[in-house]
Automatic annotation (TrEMBL):
Stretches the record annotates as Disordered: 282-302
Subcellular location per the Swiss-Prot or TrEMBL entry: Mitochondrion
Family affiliation: Belongs to the AIM9 family.
Highest rank taxon of the organism: Eukaryota
SUPFAM superfamilies tied to this protein: Protein kinase-like (PK-like)
Organism: Aspergillus calidoustus
Keyword vocabulary terms for this entry: Mitochondrion, Transit peptide
GO cellular component assignments: mitochondrion
Identification of the protein by name: Altered inheritance of mitochondria protein 9, mitochondrial
PANTHER family xrefs: ALTERED INHERITANCE OF MITOCHONDRIA PROTEIN 9, MITOCHONDRIAL
């Protein structure tokens, strides 16, 4: 069964330090446009006036300019509120993966906090975020896999109480070095031991059993008609994979021959039917004769 938690981009981003006394253009490797961050206050700002002098923070991605201004300030404040042992943010890194915009905040207690804001093409609104949170909580409940702890989340961008104005997940940062940076330097026996260690760490997942094919949710987050109970407050519900929802840019879906088939599916046959239906939904309706233009008039008038 798929958890639909997509990995983010490799760590090839650059640092930028908050609190510059003058305006500075700070480019990110992961985007073709520079990012402008202007703060007139010093770096050592306390919690109660954090980023109050922020002029503008802009992220330009593709053909669209996304203004984060107050929302980014709110995100910074939220991170500080979730970490009572810290009083300020020392630095921040920005990564853009395939499905999330990620900010990695370094606090003055030397801890890192990750904030993930999904793009529209990440999957269905609300469902994708709540499923990712539920999947992580489920793994923490059922396995001993060291999954970073989620500190806060919001799956409703339109919620008036959501001052960040976007769906988000704020969680602890997993320390370590990406394996792809070390793999080519490792000897053959080291690689074998590494693979064995990964297997021993993740083997608990292979022992989990599920009543259906789909995505994991909290039991109280879905209606009963679209879920299968999983126990301990969890359930299996509709699959969040983008292939079932048509969230990719310019990808239209057509349901003239069948209804949307998003699960959950009780059998492997039903799951395969869902894959077929997802593919069929990308095929536009056949141009029928009555819809074709009659250039020479109808048979009766000829």
């Amino acid at each position: 069964m798929s958890s639909n938690i997509e990995p983010d981009a490799p760590n090839f981003e650059e640092f930028f330090v908050l609190g510059a006394k003058k305006s500075t253009w700070l480019p990110f490797i992961s985007t073709p446009f520079p990012v402008h961050f202007n703060l007139s206050s010093p770096v050592s700002q306390r919690r109660n006036n954090l980023y109050s002098e922020c002029d503008e923070y802009r992220v330009r991605t593709g053909n669209q300019t996304l203004y984060l201004h107050e929302r980014f300030v709110a995100l910074c404040q939220k991170v500080i509120e979730l970490c009572p042992e810290a009083s300020e943010i020392k630095a921040c890194r920005k990564i853009e993966g395939g499905f999330n915009r990620v900010f990695i905040f370094t606090l003055d207690n030397e801890k890192n906090i990750v904030a993930r804001l999904p793009f529209r093409l990440a999957g269905p609104a609300k469902l994708t975020t709540i499923s990712e949170v539920a999947t992580i909580r489920y793994l923490q409940t059922k396995t001993n896999i060291p999954v970073p702890r989620i500190l806060d989340y919001n799956c409703d961008a339109s919620d008036e109480t959501n001052i960040i104005g976007s769906e988000y997940i704020i969680m602890e940062h997993a320390r370590g070095v990406p394996l792809h940076e070390k793999w080519h330097k490792m000897a053959g026996d080291q690689q074998v031991r590494c693979i064995d260690a990964i297997y021993r760490t993740l083997k608990d997942i292979a022992e989990l059993e599920f009543p259906a094919f789909g995505s994991i949710y909290f039991d109280d987050s879905l209606e009963s008609v679209s879920k299968q109970p999983l126990g301990d407050g969890f359930c299996v519900g509709p699959h969040c994979g983008t292939r079932y929802w048509g969230t990719n840019v310019g990808e239209r879906r057509y349901y003239h021959d069948a209804n949307r088939n998003i699960g959950p599916w009780l059998t492997i046959g039903d799951y395969c039917d869902g894959l077929v239906d997802a593919g069929m939904s990308q095929v536009p309706p056949v141009d029928t004769k009555p819809e074709r233009p009659i250039y020479h008039g109808s048979p009766e008038t000829q």
